[in-house]
Specification:
Oligomer: single chain
Number of helices: 10
Order of helices and strands: HEHEEEHEEHEHEHHEHEHH
Distance between the termini: 119 Å
Length: 328
């Protein structure tokens, strides 16, 4: 028989319960470590999936049957459906840019209207109406991957700039001798600035255009996810770059705006959370003369014409009147 401890019945080294407690603690520790690692991996997977989902949302095409509206719209704005060929090897497909043409008075000038991200030419109809009432010929287009213009991916202005180049050339060939202006909003503005070849425009209006793609992504992540959102921007930019096979630096209007050889009118809103006023000011400082800037009190990111109304029309009209007509 073994020796008996008066208090415990057995000596400590003979008590299995005392020795089993450390082993149980080690098992518990291992269990919680596995749970923590698994939770971390799940969290990383969720973040990756969210980034992929947001990337798909941002760069995925948004086809919309727009041309079917032309008969209904023509009672208010006399639009003609047009298709403009884009003979560039980097085109996603061999299809044409789809748009509407609104004929104006010969000799009064022409204006190209380019819509914002995940929109289409219908967004620009109100601008087309007031410009056409003043005699301008107006061309409204769907950028690739938008409306009825085919495209596999949205490229944030880089390849959309080819659609802008083709549209400007169409106006120059169809209306020889006319001075040509353009209004671009957000994505449309970036597409104008990022054009690789000189557009030979006589006046340009850029609304709500970001300075860099990094700032554009950070602003949107912060807007939708709060203060933590911008932390995810490197991941989102990396996978967007992978999807599009382009460098983020190629998507920065701030790097190209000094090459825009046309009188410029920059417009931004004080309450725009997608493109901050400081970005617009940097673009303005970098751009060539002649240039103007209008920071709209209370204005947001979308449809400055709808927000500012008559003042918007008056400022745009004065700008185009000077550079598209009085300069003749």
């Amino acid at each position: 028989m073994g020796r008996i401890c008066p208090r415990y019945g057995k000596l400590p080294w003979q008590n299995n319960r005392i020795f089993s407690q450390p082993r149980q603690s080690i098992k518990n520790m291992r269990h919680w470590m596995l749970v923590s690692v698994f939770s971390l991996l799940c969290g990383v997977a969720v973040i990756l999936l969210a980034a992929v989902g947001v990337g798909e949302l941002l760069s995925g095409p948004v086809p919309t049957a727009v041309d079917s509206l032309s008969s209904a719209i023509s009672t208010d704005v006399p639009v003609e459906p047009v298709q403009i060929p884009v003979n560039i090897s980097s085109r996603d497909t061999d299809s044409n840019v789809h748009g509407w043409l609104v004929r104006g008075t010969r000799g009064d000038g022409a204006v190209l209207l380019v819509h914002s991200l995940r929109s289409n030419r219908v967004e620009m109809l109100s601008r087309a109406k007031f410009l056409n009432e003043q005699g301008y010929t107006v061309l409204l287009i769907d950028l690739r991957g938008h409306g009825e213009t085919p495209g596999d991916r949205i490229t944030f202005g880089l390849r959309e700039s080819e659609d802008v180049e083709a549209s400007v050339a169409y106006l120059q060939n169809t209306f020889p001798g006319e001075r040509i202006g353009a209004i671009g909003v957000s994505l449309g503005a970036a597409a104008i600035v990022l054009a690789k070849n000189s557009l030979r425009l006589d006046a340009v209006v850029l609304e709500s255009v970001h300075a860099t793609i990094e700032e554009a992504v950070k602003n949107r992540l912060k807007l939708h996810l709060g203060e933590f959102g911008p932390v995810l921007s490197p991941l989102l930019l990396a996978q967007l770059s992978f999807r599009l096979n382009i460098s983020p630096e190629e998507l920065n209007p701030a790097n190209q705006i000094d090459k825009l050889n046309a009188p410029l009118f920059l417009i931004s809103g004080t309450d725009d959370q997608h493109t901050k006023v400081a970005e617009t000011q940097r673009l303005f400082d970098t751009a060539r003369q002649p240039k103007e800037i209008w920071i709209v009190p209370g204005g947001g990111h979308f449809n400055m014409h709808a927000y500012a109304g008559k003042e918007y029309e008056n400022r745009i009209s004065d700008f185009f009147e000077w550079y598209l007509r009085k300069q003749n």
